[in-house]
Write a structure and sequence with these properties.
It catalyses: L-lysyl-[protein] + acetyl-CoA = N(6)-acetyl-L-lysyl-[protein] + CoA + H(+). Its EC number is 2.3.1.48. It is found in: Nucleus. This is Histone acetyltransferase. The protein is an alpha+beta fold. It has 3 domains: 70 residues, SH3 type barrels (Roll); 41 residues, no CATH class; 114 residues, N-acetyl transferase-like (Wheat Germ Agglutinin (Isolectin 2), domain 1), CATH 3.30.60. Helices cover 30% and strands 25% of the residues. The protein has 9 helices and 12 strands. The strands form 3 sheets. Strands 4-3-2-1-5 form a 5-stranded antiparallel β-sheet. It has a 4-stranded mixed β-sheet with strand order 7-6-8-9. Helix 8 packs antiparallel against helix 9. The protein starts with 6 loop residues before the first helix and ends in a 5-residue tail after the last strand.
């Protein structure tokens, strides 16, 4: 019987243990699960729950917050000066609205999502019995909630574009704790700093398009087909990148078993001049 490994057992390439917070800020006025008015980038204060705290690489105290009645993709790290400690709220009272309860529980799978996961598992493990599949789905659900609770990477540099991320992605621990990640737009290799990225792009990487088989082209639009069994590393990196931008269940299955899937990449050919 082909069993599905847990997210925490993958290790090595990704899915290591959840990063442990070091140098947790000592701020008796602010604690995890407290609610305060927090200054958003729009210049307005909004009720938010404190999810976690840390001291960043610049020695600044930061808190990861979830804004009331807002999608989880808007969760962010904010510096301590953006938290108005004079305006503390009662979490039970503030989370009483049905809409916010729904958002707070958005880490759990819906009935339809659970069916989709079981379908995916059955297609990749046809010999597993329904009871085992349901148990595996429950385990995935619990691990999914834990792994996606906190987003560490806020931005990525992808080619000439700096892109804001929306969700957690299980990069190796030494990378996922960075505020910004530098990614090669050709091979999807990820790096910690601009200097390494520039050197990689100019001197190391010789790839100038996705690997795989070209199956369609019209004008400057090209589509490539990739076999997850043959291009395993590229496909894993593709899933890690996609997970920063999409909250989708299938990405977890694809990252666990890249060799079981076929991937398609749409590519825009740029004028060399």
């Amino acid at each position: 019987m082909l069993g599905l490994p847990s997210l925490s057992q993958i290790g090595g390439c990704f899915f290591g243990e959840q990063p442990q917070m070091t140098d947790t800020p000592e701020a008796p006025q602010i604690a995890v699960n407290d609610m305060f008015y927090v200054l958003r980038s729009t210049g307005q204060y909004y009720p938010a729950t404190i999810i976690e705290g840390r001291v960043n690489e610049h020695g600044e105290t930061e808190y990861f917050v979830h804004y009331k009645n807002r999608d989880r993709r808007l969760d962010e790290w904010v510096t301590q000066d953006r938290v108005d400690i004079s305006r503390k709220l009662n979490p039970r009272r503030e989370l009483a609205s049905p809409s916010d309860v729904r958002i707070e529980q958005s880490g759990r799978f819906t009935r339809n999502q659970r069916r989709k996961i079981i379908t995916e598992l059955r297609s990749t493990s046809p010999q597993q019995d329904p009871v085992s599949l349901d148990s595996t789905t429950e385990k995935l659900e619990l691990e999914h909630q834990e792994f996606t609770r906190i987003k560490f990477i806020d931005h990525i540099q992808f080619g000439k574009y700096e892109i804001d991320t929306w969700y957690f992605s299980p990069y190796p621990e030494e990378y996922r704790r960075l505020n910004k990640l530098w990614i090669c737009e050709y091979c999807l290799k990820y790096m910690k700093c601009a200097r390494t990225w520039v050197m990689h792009m100019t001197e190391v990487c010789r790839q100038r398009q996705p690997i795989g088989k070209q199956i369609y082209r019209k004008g400057d639009l090209v589509v490539f087909e990739l076999d997850g069994n043959e291009q395993r590393l590229y496909c894993q990196n593709l899933c890690l990148l996609a997970k920063l931008l999409f909250w989708t269940i299938k990405l977890y299955i694809m990252m666990l078993r890249p060799s079981c899937f076929t991937y398609y990449v749409k590519w825009i050919v740029r004028d060399a001049t």
